[in-house]
Amino acid sequence: MDNSIASLASNLQGAVSDVQARLQTTHTQIADGKRPLTTQESSVVARLSAQATSQSAVQTSITNANNIISVTQTGLSSATSILTQMKDIATQVANSLYNSTDKTSLTNSFTKLNTALTKIAASTGINGSFLLSSSNTLSILSGSDGVNNQTTAVRGFDLAALQATLNLNTVSFADSTVDTTSTSTVTGTDSVYAQQTISLNAMSPGDSYQIGDLKFTAAASLTGTQVAAIFASKMASNTNPSSSLGSFGGDVFSGDYTGTSSGNVLTLIGTSYGEMTPASVTQTISGGTAASTVMTLIDSIMAKISATQASMTAATTNLNTAQENSTALAASSQKLVDGIQNIDLTALQADLQKLSVQQSLDFQVVSQLNSAASSLLSIFR
Fold first, then answer.
1. Which sequence spans correspond to the domains of the chain?
2. Integer-rounded Cα radius of gyration of the chain
């Protein structure tokens, strides 16, 4: 009888300890909101958690990049506006709407606009990222699985360098003159005709050449050979060129010599023996020539800006898609983690109630056994 009671008490004590341990575990899970995981589950949770956490860096990177691109796009739009004004000035000069003094004034206005363009290139950026003043490429963290990262590159547009390359920093619309009087002469004597050899340059519309008192203004682009032939015909026979090529100012060429041409070389030959005073030769390059060139250069820059804007717009679209994917990945990863490690509160509360009842019953039985053992022992007193 003693052994039976002792054995039963021992077994019951073990059951009580088990219930108490389970109660403690259940309380702990409810307090933590997490359940114990197996080694395999812990590995999966660690991987998914890293994947979810890494999306924060991805989203921050994309947000920062979009801000930089947005500022750069604004800078490009401002640059386009300024370039449009610069082209308008060049167009007015090219159309010969202004005199030399006005062209000088327009050159100053053009230079100020070009300076403003330089400032835009130097100041458009965020946190040290200036995509208009260098050819830097913006590298953006656009994806991650917690281990491997994916990057997206957005190429910069070096506006300042392009300005320098196209010589926009040194443009002048003022008319300029070049003294091209040849030093190649043959001094006339009593038996030798005097000669003066002049090498003529090509001309653009609006350019002019003055040889002595004879001035020719080009209406079309002419080669040096054409210019020499036009002057030779005028000097030799007072023949004027087609008005589509240009026109002479003044009357018949005056001087005791005539002209011949070979290629772009015009040779003045005395009409009688003896010395001849060399004719002065001045080429005037019209500001309109520079203006036409500038218009083409500005069109080139604006085309590059347009292409860059389109590229950045596409990049923004791709980055926004990447950010949406990152947000979705973070949410799905966290949901999987929660599904693995989070407790079922309703089930645990039901278990807790059952265990509490079981513990109460166990205590009652233990109490009864203790009373029975006490009564039995009293017989031997």
1. 2-35+342-379, 43-173+290-334, 176-285
2. 48
Out of 51-60, 88-97, 174-183, 198-207, which region has the weakest mean confidence (pLDDT)? 174-183
Neighbours of 232 (CB within 10 A): 20
Residue 243 pLDDT: 93
Facing residues of 137 across strands?
155
CATH fourth-level superfamily of 43-173+290-334: f41 fragment of flagellin, N-terminal domain (1.20.1330.10)
Quote the percentage of the chain above a pLDDT of 90: 30
More confident residue, 275 or 233: 233
The tens digit of pLDDT for each residue in 50-82 reads 989 999 999 999 999 999 999 999 999 999 999
The model's pTM: 0.62
